[in-house]
């Protein structure tokens, strides 16, 4: 199983030295990848509900330092040599499709094939308005068309595309990505996210703590996987061709051990519980799991990473 941790794109650890230290430490400790999150601009008044808290409040807040995701990914790629970088997740409608294709291809070439493209359709309508995207209500269609256009540009020697949101032809798109194809992980737990995964993704990448679509126990997660497999088969693809990844936002000890309907919640409790949950997910077929291991400062974050390596990763 590949285990990853988060690299900061917002908050107090976004100075260049801290980002570089967290990434190089992750590589040295044996983490397979780091994740980088995506917001371009945060409105100060947000009515949209954040999907992953019971209150719907966006926990990161608005008034913090925040870097652009793909630029941060390139910075990390330049500071490391083996570490994979996962966009977790890229809000696809925030960038024009051709620009997205070129940015991601450049990342892949210059990192020597170390990019995994985690994608989502987005949730914050106020941010969409500030960025100047196509209509928020059309974000799912924009996401899917953008991915089709990207794959055309990444693979075709004579790329052409005619859609609602993007059209091109008689163009040269070089160099092509190193990876053929760049892996696409679809984030999200809703029906549209599952259908998007089934249609064209390389892996499903949910977070367990979505109150509307909880995947926070092994039984609930298995039910989600079974639903996904059915949709993949219905889409005419081999269910085994779609991998399973999983994102966890907390450290060991951060949440007391809890239960839902008599079953222990995944990734609550201590290090031994986390190691057991990783083994259980591995038996279901999960091949990648990542964690938010940030502490109050750089020293605490590095300590969290080292203890996680020793107390969890070493026991799986």
What this model shows, in words?
- With 316 residues, the chain is of the alpha/beta class.
- It has one domain (2-315): TIM Barrel, CATH 3.20.20.30.
- The chain is 37% helix and 15% strand.
- The protein has 9 helices and 13 strands.
- The chain has helices at residues 16-29, 69-79, 97-110, 125-131, 139-155, 191-200, 218-234, 271-284, 298-311; strands spanning 2-6, 33-36, 84-87, 90-91, 115-120, 161-162, 167-168, 184-187, 203-205, 243-248, 259-260, 263-264, 286-291.
- Strands 1-2-3-5-8-9-10-13 form an 8-stranded parallel barrel, surrounded by 5 helices. Strands 6-7 form a two-stranded antiparallel sheet.
- Helix 6 packs across helix 7 (218-234).
- It is globular and about 55 Å long.
- The mean pLDDT is 96.
Give average pLDDT, whole number: 96
Shape: globular
Compute the number of structural domains.
Answer: 1
Helix-strand string:
EHEHEEHEHHEEEHEHEEEHEH
Q: Indicate the radius of gyration in whole angstroms.
A: 19 Å
User: Helix coverage percent of residues?
Assistant: 25-40%
User: What is the CA–CA distance across the termini?
Assistant: 9 Å
CATH architecture: Alpha-Beta Barrel
- What is the fold-level CATH name, i.e. the topology? TIM Barrel
What is the percentage of strand-forming residues?
Answer: 15-25%
Main sheet attributes: strand count, strand direction, barrel closure:
8 strands, parallel, barrel
Structural class: alpha/beta
Strand order of the largest sheet: 1-2-3-5-8-9-10-13
- Please tally the β strands and state the result: 13
CATH level-4 homologous superfamily? Luciferase-like domain
Number of helices: 9
CATH class annotation:
Alpha Beta
Low-confidence stretches: none
């Amino acid at each position: 199983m590949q285990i990853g941790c988060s690299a900061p794109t917002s908050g107090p650890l976004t100075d260049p030295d801290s980002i570089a230290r967290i990434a190089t430490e992750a590589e040295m400790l044996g983490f397979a990848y780091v994740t980088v999150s995506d917001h371009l601009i945060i409105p100060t008044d947000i009515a949209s509900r954040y999907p992953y808290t019971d209150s719907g409040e966006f926990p990161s807040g608005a008034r913090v330092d925040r870097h652009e995701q793909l630029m941060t990914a390139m910075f990390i790629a330049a500071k490391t040599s083996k570490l994979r970088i996962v966009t977790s997740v890229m809000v696809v409608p925030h960038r024009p499709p051709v620009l997205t294709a070129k940015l991601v291809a450049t990342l892949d070439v210059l990192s020597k094939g170390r990019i995994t493209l985690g994608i989502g359709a987005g949730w914050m309508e106020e941010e969409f308005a500030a960025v100047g995207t196509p209509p928020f209500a059309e974000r799912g269609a924009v996401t899917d068309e953008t991915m089709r256009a990207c794959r055309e540009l990444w693979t075709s020697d004579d790329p052409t595309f005619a859609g609602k949101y993007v059209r091109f032809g008689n163009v040269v798109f070089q160099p092509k990505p190193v990876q053929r194809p760049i892996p696409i992980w679809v984030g999200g737990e809703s029906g549209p996210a599952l259908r998007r995964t089934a249609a064209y993704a390389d892996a499903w990448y949910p977070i367990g703590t979505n109150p509307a679509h909880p995947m926070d126990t092994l039984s609930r997660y298995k039910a989600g996987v079974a639903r996904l497999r059915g949709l993949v088969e219905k889409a005419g693809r081999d269910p085994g061709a779609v991998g399973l990844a999983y994102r966890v936002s907390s450290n060991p000890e951060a949440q007391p051990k809890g239960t839902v309907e008599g079953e222990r919640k995944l990734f609550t409790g201590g290090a031994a519980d986390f190691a057991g949950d990783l083994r259980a997910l591995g038996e279901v077929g999960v091949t990648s799991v990542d964690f938010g291991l940030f502490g109050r400062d750089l020293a605490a974050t590095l300590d969290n990473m080292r203890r996680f390596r020793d107390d969890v990763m070493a026991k799986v």
